[in-house]
Amino acid sequence: MRVYSRGVTNSGVSAAPDPVARSGLSAARLREIYRLMALARALDERAWILNRSGRVHFVISAQGHEGAEAGICAALTPGRDWLLPYYRSLAAVLAFGMTPREVMLLQFGKADDPGSGGRQMPAHYGGAAYRIFSGSSPVGTQALHAAGIALAARLRGEAQVATVMMGEGAANQGDVHEALNFAGIHHLPMVLVVENNGYAISVPAEKQVAVRDVAIRAAGYSMPGVIVDGTDVLGCYLAMRDAVARALAGDGPTLIEAKVTRLTGHSSDDQQTKYRTEDDLAAGRGRDPLPAFRDELRAAGLLDAAAEAQIAAEVRGLVDDATDFAEAAADPDPATLLRHVYAEPGVPGAAPGPPGGAPG
Ligand SMILES: Cc1ncc(C[n+]2csc(CCOP(=O)(O)OP(=O)(O)O)c2C)c(N)n1
Ligand SMILES: [Mg+2]
Predict the structure, then answer these.
(1) pLDDT (tens digit, 9 = 90+) per residue, 114-132?
(2) How remote is the CA of residue 19 from the centroid of ligand 1, in Å?
(3) What share of the chain is helix, strand, coil (3-state, %, to 5)?
(4) How many domains would you assign to the chain?
């Protein structure tokens, strides 16, 4: 099993500390990745304020997961590749092109939410235009969709990667094992990213996963299993770059386990101080990827005070705009309540009729 860490490049040679040399990414691209993480964090923090002030009914947070997702997505090609996100994939959906306004439309459950027109719970992202697949609330089911998409890419002869994200708790579901087995047998261009934050709601990892590292399961499906520090953005990038190269070369899937931290309660309906010790919470706060990546760029002279201030101001403006836009947007029309539940042949935007029936 491969372990990526700050001192190691994907060729196994000791890395230069310089982030550009380590990753091969330009200084501008690295600042873009930092900006993406800062935007995800700010949108997430705003969602909590909206929840606590009674304006949105539910928040499920990405805080602590942004570094892994930003690094992973930096190795993908939006517009070509497919993303099967989960509810903590905020940085990933932004990387795939979803706008802050669209994120907030979903948060408020508005009619123009691109994933579901306000039907899905908040953070159940989707956007056909971005190749972001709208998933179900039962955790782990998106792995089967990813295997199906990867199989379709193979059958069509299209060079695409299907990346599916989930937590370590979801990775125990039967669906996930079936998807990995199928992808392993058929050498599908799929990458499973397990964002292991040590908890499934209030249940600690040792009470939900029989092995210490989920990545070890990859051997059972004849694919590489990779462990990466999820607070190490560039380590995540390098791990994913290898996985993408493997997938596109026809060599099959990879399982990447990113060890991350969950900085908030499970959701806005959870209070994690009830089941986590103060030491555990403090250790988690010490593994926040956002200041870690900011400090890495600062130390390398890639982010100065002026650039940081500019990013902060831009992010604040985007979050304010998205909040105002989404709050003022139209709610779904109650007359469309059952849309996408039953086939409505001939209705624009509705589910098409059954195969062989009238076109939708
Ligand atoms: C099949 C199924 N079982 C239970 C739930 C309730 N549930 C929602 S999120 C969650 C925890 C998942 O933990 P993990 O996969 O580690 O992701 P994390 O929230 O820690 O990122 C559970 C049990 C569900 N949505 N689906
Ligand atoms: Mg978890």
Answers:
(1) 999 999 999 999 999 999 9
(2) 34
(3) 45, 10, 40
(4) 2
